[in-house]
Amino acid sequence: MRILIISQYFYPENFKINEIAFFLKEKGFDVTVLTSKPNYPEGKFYKGYNFFNKNTEFINGVKIIRVPTFPRLNGGIIGMSLNYLSFIFFGFFIYIFKIKNKYDLIFATLLTPATSLLPMIWIKKRFKIPIILWVLDLWPDSFFANTGFRNKYIDSMIERISNKVYNYSAIIRWIKIK
Fold it and tell me: In angstroms, rounded to a whole number, what is the distance separating the alpha carbons of residues 89 and 70?
């Protein structure tokens, strides 16, 4: 089975999705990860990475397609916005030119933001691939709780995007933090 994992964050960034991808590869699955250039949590590219290099690499047998993204910088609204928007914008071109109908399943991890999974929706619509969505950050609730930002137009847009992400998934799993 060929699995496409979509997560804005992946190795060398320290997230649980790394273990899942490497485990699936060890079990004989053909695993590709669509992710951004590593820059979390420092807000700058990890050593050896920049906007232009390492667009495709293999780590432990897992193919990693890295979307050019702007780093988060200090985590302020401008840096975060540029990071999120660049992942969506350049992710669209990666989707057009690199993602072909060669996957049997999409495994997407929802951290922050929900907009990072728009490429998942494009791929699902074009190739009719089933999606398993692993929710770790419940949107839009986590956005509103963490930012305190409220604007009826932005709220409505974020809610629509979040609902679209959830509605395109065949299976949704979440982790409850106690």
Answer: 11
pLDDT tens sequence across 89-118: 898 888 888 887 789 998 988 776 677 777
Burial tier of 82 (Cβ tally within 10 Å: 0-12, 13-18, 19+): middle
Backbone φ/ψ region at 9: left (φ over 0), alpha (ψ -120 to 50), beta: beta
pTM of the prediction?
A: 0.82
Query: Within the chain, which residues score under 50 in pLDDT?
Result: 177-178
d(CA 67, CA 93): 9
Nearest Cα residue to 111 out of 133, 144, 127:
133
In angstroms, how far apart are the furthest CA atoms of the chain?
47
Residue 178: per-residue pLDDT: 46
All domains in the chain, ordered by first residue: 2-174 (3.40.50.2000)
H helix runs in the chain, sequence order: 16-26, 77-97, 118-127, 141-147, 152-167
- Amino acid in the structure at residue 94: I
Joined together, the tokens standing for residue 168 give 């395109």
